[in-house]
């Protein structure tokens, strides 16, 4: 909900901000849109990132890094990049609806240079950065090629204080859950309309060798619309 008053000294600034918010939305209603409270402005801010939790069974020959691209013909769907504490808190709120999921995979992985990197929408890589959330006893020096966020409290218990921490692991798992991240629609990207292709810089194709036996999409129930 946006409340603008024409006599407000910041009316023009707030009006432009409102337009950017109205035109920034996830095309798939199952997605949760990244929404963070701006303490300096005292309002909720929507960002152009959409998240969807999926579980796949029987695809042990496929890397978890290809899990999101396998569920879509769109090349701009990638495993989630948890690059800030704010994103982590948002995802923790999201996953509270699914207490029986003990872990989920991130887009964090070691590249050919053995460096920890995230996947960007165009398939390029960017470095780990300053934010990390390693589990006790683990660090960037621990062995493993990919990273799973593992519940520190088990499943179904202590739901409202269930901390998922990072553990380096294999990139292959017979049954795995993953948060997929995609672009929201805004003035620059109108991919919500199926007849409009993504920008050329985001067009990329991955070769998938095999298909999962079963895929489950966990519908988002976060009422983020009430925050605006």
Automatic annotation (TrEMBL):
Species for this entry:
Acrobeloides nanus
Write out the ranges of the annotated region (Disordered): 196-228
Listed Basic residues bias regions: 201-228
Q: What is this protein called?
A: C-type lectin domain-containing protein
Q: What PROSITE patterns does the entry give?
A: C_TYPE_LECTIN_2 (PS50041)
C-type lectin domain residues: 46-171
């Amino acid at each position: 909900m946006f409340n603008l008053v024409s006599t407000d000294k910041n009316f023009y600034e707030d009006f432009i901000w409102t337009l950017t918010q109205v035109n920034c939305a996830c095309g798939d209603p199952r997605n949760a849109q990244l929404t963070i409270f701006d303490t300096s402005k005292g309002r909720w801010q929507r960002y152009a990132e959409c998240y969807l939790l999926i579980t796949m069974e029987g695809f042990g020959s496929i890397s978890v890094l290809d899990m999101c691209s396998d569920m879509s013909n769109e090349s701009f769907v990638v495993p989630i990049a948890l690059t800030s504490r704010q994103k982590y808190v948002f995802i923790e709120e999201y996953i509270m609806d699914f207490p029986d999921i003990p872990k989920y995979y991130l887009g964090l992985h070691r590249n050919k240079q053995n460096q920890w990197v995230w996947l960007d929408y165009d398939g390029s890589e960017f470095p780990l950065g300053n934010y990390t959330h390693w589990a006790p006893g683990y660090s960037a020096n621990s062995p493993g090629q990919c990273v799973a966020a593992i519940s520190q409290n088990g499943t179904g218990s202590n739901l409202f204080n269930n901390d998922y921490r990072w553990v380096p692991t294999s990139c292959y798992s017979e049954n795995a859950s993953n948060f997929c991240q995609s672009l929201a629609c805004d003035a620059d990207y109108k991919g919500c309309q199926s007849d409009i292709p993504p920008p050329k810089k985001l067009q990329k194709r991955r070769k998938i060798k095999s298909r999962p036996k079963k895929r489950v999409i966990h519908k988002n129930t976060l009422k983020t619309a009430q925050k605006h």
